[in-house]
Structures are given as C-alpha cells and as structure tokens.
Amino acid sequence: MWLKIPDLYVNSYITTVPFNNGSWDVTWLSQQVGHLEGSAYPTWEGNTVLTAHNVTSFGMPGSFVEIGSLFYGDLIIIQAYGMTYTYEVREKQVILDGNVAAAFCENVQQNPSRRMKFCNAP
User: Fold this and answer.
1) What's 99's domain CATH number?
2) N or C: which end of the chain has fewer CB within 10 A?
3) Looking at the 3D structure of the chain, how many domains does it have?
4) What's the predicted TM-score (pTM) here?
C-alpha cells in the first residue's frame, strides 16, 4: 500500500505501527509512513491515522516535513490492492505532542465517512 501526496512529492510505503504497552513506537519508520494500529485501516470507513517523521534519525527530511503546507483541495492518494483512492484536504487541525488520542475522537457513528489524519512523529 502506497501513499502519494503530489504537492509534497511524497511517495511512500505505508506500514502498520503496532500498539504495544499503551503506545506506538515510530522510531523505526525512517522514510516510511505508518498506519497507527487501532485507527481505521486505510481506505475503510472511519478515522485513519497516518504518521511519519519530520526529520529522520539520520537528520534527513522525513516524509511529513512539509505536511503543514497542505491546503484545502490538495490531493492525497492511496494505492492499494489494484485500486486508487483519492482524497482531498478539507481541514487542518493541530494535535499537540502526546495527544495522539485526539485523532481518534471523531464520532464516526454520527458522521460516517473516510478520514485520514496525519501526525508528525517525533
């Protein structure tokens, strides 16, 4: 499964980041994008939470270094299982460090849709 964000030149493999002992260890992601286990699987209904580094452990720009520069209408594309899913940015929301749970809090039962939320990994 691949994530493409054309305006940011992001073209990255998506891997699942397991939820272990009450948290997600994202230190190993390098240039990959991680799907946080416990959020909706990418392309499924609900809130999908994806994360990537601003700066890798090698000091290089990470996949999400420019994620804050996306604007309303910018495209986000997931390619999976022979299909292409195209999303558009509709809003930006800042989630403070250590408050990843805020990305999960949307009540999907009352407002069913497919949403992707992006978190910059430390």
Assistant:
1) 2.40.260.10
2) C
3) 1
4) 0.80
